[in-house]
Design goal:
Keywords: Dioxygenase, Iron, Metal-binding, Oxidoreductase. One of its GO terms (biological process) is carotene catabolic process. Belongs to the carotenoid oxygenase family. This protein is mostly beta strands. The chain contains six helices and 40 strands. Strand 29 and strand 30 form a beta hairpin. The strands form eleven sheets. Strands 9, 35, 36, 37, 38 and 39 form a six-stranded antiparallel sheet that branches. The chain is globular. The structure holds fe (ii) ion.
Length: 630
């Protein structure tokens, strides 16, 4: 289903019908613009007048809101919770027109029941409407939901219980025994005001594979924010990346304060979206977003996804944690950090193999609040990249604008800290002008040096507001710890990011990188395999490539080793997997590609029973690890 042809986003792009009810305005798709016969909102009021319109204001679910039956708790870690059974749901016709899949049925979304708003909720929602319509409408494209949520960036309307998939090409390799799970934004309520791509509630899309068969499940991470907003039937927490003026910041801040006074939510319980990535360490699986603490999740034997709760690691983890912890599979340790707007602006920490969080290492030598989305580890060091992206909360409060912005006056630096440091006394910083990597792919130690591989964002000023102009060039960076010299070598001139490696090589010298091709940005039109050892010969390192085809776009690739327990296995002996969406057919697939073949041959393609929106990061968890989550 095409996003702007989806039931709630259409307006000037597709001829649509406007539905008017006493409380809301929303779009009803024409038969031509949807692939399912189900109404967009099962409980919506019957059609009143039908008008043809060319432009509309995006609205969302009716104010007489509905909510879904909660399936999990976010405050405890129940081990015996009974997963919802897909057999309890009434099957509905599949979205596909393909006759060969007519017997595969997509379960209906769970039953909803109306939420009766309280008087304070009605008043505060009315204030919110005034702000969205008159004070802070989505005036810029990068926060205009009609632009941001176009095509397959549009959210799916509800969760998908475990649903059998059809293998339509090749066969799933035996080593793919487990689940590939990918995180991404999927706003629970369609935005009435400004909305940035990073602002959506986290939804996990898991394809569980066993004995050559696949089951897809899509579930929200049941964060505190998600749960409280579900209770009241509407948004409570403002979109952090969408502030665009002093007035909007002031009014939205005042509204949030009023909502807290009305006990609608409590910031102490976190406001994170858990929409960015996943990590598995110490026999736990986490959904992550860097503005909050991790949420523990699990995949049940039938392929369902459950949120177990917000994890503070026995009270040792404060406030938040990066969405990109690094796991050393040799030692079982996990390494992480958090950053923030008040000193210390950066704090490093690690978890031992049993998941015990070790004491914080505050980094006061980071002198200004900076956005650090990712970092790297080697066997000896933790490596941080201070970019020209600063955090300016006070500027947001007093001048308006986003809390994160570029700082062209800052010289980017790489910080190197011994990975078992107890304080920052041995930390060294190296100036690296022009080096602004949002992600760090891998690092390893060489004699008196550290080698880092990372996609460098060449136009960092576009990183948040003009994603279509971003170009990231993969670089190999050698940091000489003795002389302080930093040597940078391009690996490819192509626009590459979301670069991954064989996870067993995290922190160790590796040869192969698998990266997503951003073209046209921010869409991902293919995947390349690079041999980074060729960079020293000053040549393009691409050794394999697969483009997905016309208007077919994928996501971050992930490498799954064919023999993960074989220490003699070659680094690239395995498969590259990713979700890929065909915007013409409106269908999504799960692709399995042979990592050793020069064209990344497709060894299996799985037709998904429902669209999987574009998202961020994912990982494959083996069945032997999934079983530890039970
Ligand atoms: Fe990321």
């Amino acid at each position: 289903m095409n996003a702007l042809r989806s039931p709630f986003l259409s307006g000037s792009v597709q001829p649509s019908k406007l539905i008017l009810t006493p409380t809301t305005i929303m779009l009803k798709p024409t038969a031509k613009t949807t692939r399912t016969s189900k109404p967009p909102f099962p409980n919506s009021s019957p059609l009143v007048p039908v008008l043809n319109v060319r432009a509309v204001r995006i609205e969302e679910k009716p104010k007489t809101s509905t909510r879904r039956e909660p399936t999990t708790t976010t405050t405890t870690l129940p081990r015996s919770a009974n997963p919802p059974s897909p057999s309890n749901n009434i099957p509905s016709p599949p979205p596909s027109r393909n006759k060969s899949t007519a017997t595969r049925r997509v379960p209906s979304p769970p039953q909803r029941r109306p939420v009766v708003p309280t008087l304070p909720t009605l008043i505060l929602n009315a204030v919110d409407d005034v702000i969205n319509n008159f004070i802070d409408p989505p005036s810029k494209a990068y926060v205009d939901p009609r632009h941001v949520l176009r095509d397959n960036y549009a959210p799916v309307l509800d969760e998908l219980p475990p649903t059998e998939c059809e293998v339509i090409e090749g066969s799933l390799p035996a080593c793919l025994d487990g689940a590939y799970i990918r995180n991404g934004p999927n706003p629970q309520f369609l935005p009435r005001g400004p909305y940035h791509l990073f602002d959506g509630d986290g939804m996990l899309h898991s394809i569980k594979i066993s004995k050559g068969k696949a089951t897809l499940c899509s579930r929200y991470v049941k964060t505190y924010k998600y749960t409280k907003e579900q209770e009241v039937g509407g948004p409570l927490v403002p979109n952090v990346f969408s502030f665009n003026s002093l007035t909007s910041s002031a009014t939205r801040g005042a509204l949030s304060f009023a909502r807290m006074l009305a006990s609608q939510f409590n910031l102490a319980n976190g406001f994170g979206l858990a929409n960015t990535s996943l990590a598995f360490f110490a026999d736990r699986l986490y959904a992550l977003g860097e503005s909050d603490m991790p949420y523990s999740v699990r995949v049940t034997p039938n392929g369902d996804i459950e949120t177990l709760g917000r994890q503070d690691f026995d009270g040792k983890l404060m406030i938040s944690m990066t969405a990109h912890p690094k796991v050393d599979l040799d030692t079982g340790e996990a390494f992480a950090f958090r950053y923030g707007p008040v000193p210390p602006f950066l704090t490093y920490f690690r978890f031992d193999p049993t998941g015990n969080k070790q004491p914080d290492v505050p980094i006061f030598s980071l002198m200004t609040p900076s956005m650090l989305h990712d970092f790297a580890i080697s066997k000896k060091y933790a490596i941080f990249a201070e970019m020209q992206l600063g955090m300016s909360p006070f500027e947001m409060i007093f001048s308006g604008g986003s809390p994160v912005g570029t700082d062209p006056g800052k010289v980017p630096r790489i910080g190197v800290l011994p990975r078992y440091a107890k304080d920052e006394t041995e930390m060294k910083w190296f100036n690296v002008p022009g080096f602004n990597p949002m992600h760090l792919t891998n690092a390893w130690d060489e004699e008196d040096a550290i080698v880092l591989v990372a996609p460098n964002v060449l136009c960092i000023e576009h990183a948040l507001e003009n994603l279509d102009l971003v170009h990231s060039m993969l670089e190999k960076v050698r940091i000489d710890l003795k002389t302080g010299t930093v040597r940078r070598t391009p690996i490819s001139a192509r626009n590459l990011d979301f670069a991954v490696i064989n996870p067993a090589y995290t922190g160790k010298k590796n040869k192969y990188v698998y990266a997503a091709v951003g073209d046209p940005m921010p869409s991902i039109s293919g995947v390349v395999k690079l041999d980074v050892s060729k960079a020293d010969q000053r040549q393009d390192c691409t050794v394999a490539c697969r483009m997905y085809g016309r208007r077919c776009y994928g996501g971050e690739p992930f490498f799954v080793a064919r023999e993960p327990d074989n220490p003699e296995a070659e680094e690239d002996d395995g498969y590259v997997v990713s979700y890929v969406h065909d915007e013409v057919a409106g269908e999504s697939k799960f692709l399995v590609m042979d990592a050793k073949s020069p064209e990344l041959d497709i060894v299996a393609a799985v037709k998904l029973p429902r669209r999987v929106p574009y998202g961020f990061h994912g990982l494959f968890v083996r069945e032997s690890d999934l079983s530890k989550l039970m």
